[in-house]
Specification:
Blueprint (H helix, E strand, L loop, with lengths): L3 H4 L28 H8 L4 H11 L12 E3 L5 E4 L4 E4 L9 E5 L4 E9 L11 E7 L2 E2 L7 E2 L9 E7 L5 E11 L11 E10 L7 E8 L2 E9 L3 E7 L5 E5 H10 L8 E15 L3 E8 L27 E11 L2 E10 L6 E6 L5 E6 L2 E5 L2 E5 L12 E9 L8 E4 L1
């Protein structure tokens, strides 16, 4: 790769550092936006050493320091830590020469200075964000990341955010969640980049092109897919929101169903922030959380059926299951079954009838079999044991047209 890719972010007067030990290839152009943004904002923390020298001289907060209330960062690649190192906030002004400052509070930040004006057909000016996990060897404390998706702990990875938006400008407000085929803590992730756009203003669009629509995490999302040397999957909410609380797996499962991700990969970081093209002042993360042992939020888009009291000794009433269609296209669809334990169970099995033309091609979250016109899925080793009130999900893709089957659940 040309060395200019690494040298380009440096401005006059900055201290130069050694080039990357592992080259990052130049990404191909994308529809609407330049994919260079994905490289540079991932790379920003590599400049930490040089930036720290400048910050010390300028009196601004030192990189890696512990954030205090109303800490201000104006250095282009400045970062600081929150909550005893549980989170990192980064200014990450990589794509513009206009100034940008963020004011960091106890659990978030606000862009207090920004008057960007870059082409909306190119890359954004910056990606100020807060994150948990590892971002080019700058890892937060006790995140449990990297975490293999096949690990049962991944099912309980949750995150929440609350944001505020200005009335002007052109920008997106988005999660940026990264996956890699290996448990790497440095360098460019090459598995998949999951972007979740809570809101956007103006002309910017995600990488690639729109490939579908899906109901997830309490909303309806347009799904976009593109490639930057790794898969970029973006979920754009059709009705904007200022807050979210969701399980990362709810989006990852949909990525797997579309063939854009693999369960052998590792989750490496969970980031939430903004990509401004025009303006940017007033964008704010009011609060952010990330947990690996939290309660998975109930997905309001998944239909639930009322249940009657069950005999705790009756295995047929120990669990229940509901079905929802998550995506459709000409000649096929994906579905999701939510299994809920009415009492503690060690294993479970769900069954439902297939209609004419339906043929299951893949299943995730369980092991499937078909006998005649009845489909059956049993649990995996990692999601069989459910406490009373606990739940897990099974996803599948099928040919034919979706139906609304009654799903039966029995405990084993």
């Amino acid at each position: 790769m040309p060395q200019a890719w690494f040298a380009a972010p440096f401005e006059k007067g900055l201290v130069m550092v050694a080039p990357l030990s592992t080259p990052i290839d130049s990404p191909p152009p994308r529809a609407g936006l330049l994919t260079v943004s994905r490289l540079r904002r991932r790379r920003a923390s590599l400049l930490g050493g040089a930036a720290a020298v400048l910050l010390a001289a300028s009196g601004l907060v030192a990189l890696g320091g512990t954030a205090q209330a109303a800490t201000q960062i104006c250095e282009k690649y400045g970062t600081t830590k929150l909550s005893g190192g549980k989170y990192v906030v980064m200014n990450n002004l990589w794509g513009a020469s206009t100034p940008q400052c963020i004011t960091v509070g106890d659990n978030g930040f606000e862009v207090t200075t920004a008057n960007h004006s870059v082409s909306t057909s190119g890359a954004p000016a910056s990606y100020p964000a807060i994150y948990a996990g590892c971002h080019y060897a700058n890892c937060t404390a006790n995140s449990g990341l990297p975490l293999r998706v096949s690990d049962s702990k991944f099912n309980s990875v949750t995150t929440s955010v609350s944001m505020s938006y200005p009335a002007s400008g052109e920008w997106d407000a988005a999660y940026d969640i990264w996956f890699d085929p290996t448990s790497r803590t440095d360098g460019q992730n090459t598995g998949a980049e999951l972007m979740i756009w809570l809101n956007h203003a103006g002309r910017p669009q995600p990488v690639g092109s729109k490939v579908g629509t899906v109901n997830l995490a309490g909303g309806t999302w347009d799904v976009w897919y593109g490639s930057s040397g790794w898969n970029v999957v973006s979920y754009v909410r059709t009705q904007s929101t200022s807050s979210m609380n969701f399980a990362v797996r709810s989006f990852f499962d949909d990525m797997v169903s579309r063939g854009y991700a693999q369960r052998s990969w590792y989750l490496t970081s969970v980031q939430a922030g903004f990509e401004p093209w025009i303006g940017g002042q007033g964008l704010a993360v009011n609060s952010f959380s990330y947990n690996t042992d939290g309660t998975v939020p109930v997905d309001p888009t998944t239909p639930t059926n009322p249940t009657t009291p069950t005999d705790p000794t009756d295995p047929s009433g120990a669990c229940s299951a509901t079905y929802s269609t998550t995506n459709t296209w000409s000649g096929g669809f994906t579905g999701q079954i939510t299994v809920k334990a009415n009492q503690a169970v060690g294993n479970w099995k769900v069954s439902w009838p297939l209609t004419s033309g339906q043929s299951i091609s893949s299943v995730w979250g369980g092991r499937s079999s078909v006998s005649g016109t009845t489909a059956t899925v049993t649990n995996e080793a990692w999601n069989g044991a459910l406490s009373a009130g606990g739940s897990t999900t099974v996803g599948f893709s099928s040919s034919g047209s979706p139906s609304s089957p009654t799903v039966t659940c029995t405990a084993g």
